Amino acid sequence: MKVKSNIATSDSGFIFNPNTGESFSLNPIGNKILEWMRNKKSHEEIISLVQNEYSIDTDTIEKDLKDFTESLKQYQVLEEKTI
Amino acid sequence: MNNKPKYTIAVTGLNAIDSPGPGLAVIRSLRDAESFDVRIIGLAYENLEPGIYMDQYIDKSYKVPFPTAGSEALLSRLDYINKKENIDFIFPNFDAELFHYIKIQEELNNELGIKMVLPSLEQFEARQKAVLHQYGIDHGITVPKSDMVNNHTQTLKKAEEYGYPVVIKGRFYDAKIAYSPEQATSYFNSITAKWGLPIIVQEFVQGTEVNVCGLGNGNGDLIGAVPMRKLYITDKGKAWAGVTLDNQDLLNITNQMVNSTKWNGPFELEFIKTEDNKYYLLEINPRFPAWCYLTTGAGQNQVEALVNLGMGKKVDPFLSYEIGKMFIRYSEDMIVDIEKFKSISTLGEL
Hints:
- The complex is a heterodimer.
- Chain A is α+β, with helices and mostly antiparallel strands.
- In chain A, 47% of the residues lie in helices and 12% in strands.
- Chain A is built from three helices and three strands; from the N terminus they run E-E-E-H-H-H.
- Chain A has helices at 28-38, 43-53, 58-74; strands at 8-9, 14-17, 22-25.
- In chain A, strands 1-2-3 form a three-stranded antiparallel β-sheet, with no helix packed on it.
- The termini of chain A are close together.
- The relative contact order of chain A is 0.21.
- By secondary structure, chain B is of the alpha+beta class.
- Chain B has twelve helices and 14 strands.
- The longest helix of chain B is centred in the N-terminal third of the chain and has 15 residues, at 71-85.
- Chain B starts with 5 loop residues before the first strand and ends with a helix.
- The model of chain B has no long low-confidence stretch (mean pLDDT 93).
């Protein structure tokens, strides 16, 4: 889950992919997860960090994180093809 | 003390309309130039080209004959204008007029002392839409298959060969995607009625359009190149907003094209980027595009560099540009005195 180095992010959650020219907005938790990915947190660490901030069960976090990662791959934000 | 030279530069393409010519963008870049000052002469075909009336950009405008009048008529008119204005440099900005300017380039230089930086006639002809596929093969660039046709039977035959949808294109302007033989016939008729024969039938490639505005120095060196993605496209397919990209693949292809063809002068490359990140070259426009002011805004005043090339100055290649720089086009109504319209209509100058 390596975020491409040239992806521009902002505190407000605005993301710009300079390779494709596409831009989109993340909600606060999405923005945090992207930041953790940038800081090279592992999949397990990210699940744990989300759980610390939100009272959600691990299965739900797993599922939502998978969907979120798929979206990031679709927008060509991530380097790797697989989680 | 200001030691900068002052050039008188004539510019065409003043039609800043919904399908805009590049003239105004070129002029704004010329006005931003740091290495010289300018006096701008507008060259217009129609009385209502907005640039004619934009005093803040253009010092004086003249009507010039339509390209259909031929090279001699153009040369004669430019001779008249030059006697009044002492032009240093001309910036032709329309595909349809370029052939004539290339033909009279030597006379303009030798007899009137007017410089231009244009592709050679061979370079100009070799990148024509009708032969672009071969051009791609010759220079190692991927280009969709295409062929030139002269009647609707040939159009349908070629469309059948490529499979629907196909792109039906005019020789210089216009392109439509046909999803059926009926649409192919209809577009053949409408484009022929507007732009004449031949028509180009091109294989359709699905993807995102990305463009490059650049400049070659004729020796195989790329002086500048800025890739852009259109963010908003009008119903005429023109960019109304766009953003500069960080795309090394596009820059590599552009570099290869300029290196292989020894392209001289400005160009716009139009690509389709497919989902699997392949780039298909759709068109080479042998001039700056209407969005070329974005390159100036992003740190590459390619227009200024082109003039300096033409004036024999040493021009170093640009090494970078700002990524994520956007342009957003707008339109506004000018309030114009009828006297000005009268002057350009009756006297052919304003």
